[in-house]
Amino acid sequence: MRRVSRITIAGVATAALAVTVSACGSSSTSSSSSTEGKSKGIGLAYDVGGKGDQSFNDAAYAGFEKAQKDFGVGGRDVEPTDNESDADKTQRLITLAKAGYNPVIGVGFAYAGAVKEAAQKFPKVTFGIIDDNQTQANNVADMVFHEEQSSYLAGVAAAKATKKNHIGFIGGVDVPLIHKFEAGYEQGAKSVNPKIKIESQYLTQTAQEGGFSSPDKGENAANGQIDAGADVVYAAAGLSGQGVIKSAAEHKVWAIGVDSDQYKQQALAKYKAYILTSALKNVEGAVYDLSKSVIKDKKPLTGEIRGSLDNGGVGLSDSNPTFQKNADMQAAIKKAEQGIKDGSIKVKTS
Predict the structure, then answer these.
(1) FRET partner for 139 with CA separation of 20 to 30 A, picked from 107, 153, 207, 221?
(2) What pLDDT, on a 0 to 100 scale, did the predictor assign at position 136?
């Protein structure tokens, strides 16, 4: 039977990388002398936007990096290419598996078909996919999250922070996964103020159009929402969210980050005073735990692994001192979190 497992919190560590190039996109490789005769280590294939998005992909990289250091193994992380096909994704995973990496992890729901095909070809390799649970294979871990729960808390924070009773949501791509972020955010905000005005916009209909990888699109969308009166804007848009944060800072209104604690991201440091909080998704822990199960425990995790408020898989960051010191906001968030955990609050997913 396939197991359902829980996600634990993993910290961030560093490892040296040497750059190399593959036919399936640029990649980085690191190695350890302790891996002779064993798995080469961890294979990681990034989603649209790639490493450096200060959000989703970088969270996966943090788990990949920490696992290499803690378990004394090597690894190879591979970037996506522009306008790539599903066949390109499949070949990327097959190349990693054939080279001896185990586990091999696809970052993002776009890898669903690729993971399914590669897992069939390499039944002795453990594959992981983040943000999809449709694979249903014995050697695949489907790592998914209750994004709507952390987004609900973000909505509560936004409703408590706004001075105009007017907030915004920007989704990268109009797909069911991002609908969960929007649904939770809207429900959370309306739990504080049922009459609050919420601007909502998706940047593109497909990922190929750049919804997750275009900071300029995010900035333009945020400019429009702020001009319309929103003074808190939440983006679930990957790399495009950097443009939303830039716009919020320039207009001196609040931004709410996503996936990683964006207040702490070096590339966003000049904007951090305007990053109220971030709706966290423990992608780092998911990558780390799957790697640990294969490399150290020798008992690979498989089946659906779902992160929630209960197990620390999702949450809300508190790095910004302004956020920490707002007693009214903190009380409302704590009450909402307890309600979600005890089941008295049922968070919508669409």
Answers:
(1) 207
(2) 79
Say if residue 127's pLDDT is above 50. yes
More confident of the two residues 302 and 81: 302
Residue 28: both structure tokens together:
């980085």
Q: What is the mean pLDDT of the chain?
A: 90
CATH code of the domain occupying 18-145+283-307 = 3.40.50.2300
* Each residue's pLDDT tens digit, 24-54: 445 555 544 333 336 789 999 998 888 988 8
Domain boundaries, the chain: 18-145+283-307, 147-281+320-342
Does the fold of domain 147-281+320-342 match that of domain 18-145+283-307?
A: yes
End-to-end CA gap in the chain: 30
pLDDT in tens, 12-24: 332 322 323 333 4
Class of domain 147-281+320-342: alpha beta
CA 62 vs CA 52, 56, 151, 156: distances in Å: 11, 10, 22, 28
